[in-house]
Amino acid sequence: MKTLVADGEMQAMQKPLTLETVNSVGPDSITYLLELRRRIGPIGARFDELYKARKSAEIASLGEEITTRGIITPTDLIDAEKLRALLIERIVNLPAGTNAFIILPIGLLNGPHSILVDLRSHGAEVTAID
Questions:
Q1: What's the rounded Cα separation, in Å, for the pair 41 and 101?
Q2: Coil vs helix vs strand at 14
Q3: Phi/psi-derived region of residue 123, left when phi > 0, alpha when psi is between -120 and 50, beta in every other case
């Protein structure tokens, strides 16, 4: 097994957790998340269901809804663009003919940080596994 990004590289991409970020979790955020959970069930499980059903537009829509409410997301805690660029570079530079099973955060598979189009434009064949 080959690691595309080492622990130290991931740590270097982490954004500092600021007081502003911590204080952004307040009563309004908690109320919204509880209402969302009542509406759709467990939030993480809902994302898993949408992902398994390949409903990327619904994933993006739900993610956007959560983000517009000011809820902290993984991309608030890491430089997603740096991670995206690093992964694209490492994946497209694998030796020709290499088959790879790569696990990526969902945020890099859809939405504004998706790497799929860039991988395909560099000649990579991208296949989802059911």
A1: 30
A2: strand
A3: left
Residue with tokens 């269901």: 49
pLDDT at 130: 64
3-state secondary structure of 78: strand
DSSP 79-104: -HHHHHHHHHHHHHTSPTT-------
Give the pLDDT of residue 1.
62
pLDDT tens, residue by residue, 29-84? 899 999 999 999 999 899 889 888 878 788 888 988 988 888 887 777 888 888 88
**H or E element: which one contains 76?**
helix 74-77
- Nearest alpha-carbon partner for 74 in 87, 84, 86: 84
User: Do the beta carbons of residue 94 and residue 100 sit within 8 Å?
Assistant: yes
CA distance linking residue 31 with residue 64, whole number of Å = 17
78 exposure class (CB count in 10 Å sphere: 0-12, 13-18, 19+): middle
| DSSP string across 27-70 | HHHHHHHHHHHHHHSSHHHHHHHHHHTT-HHHHHHHHHHHHHTT
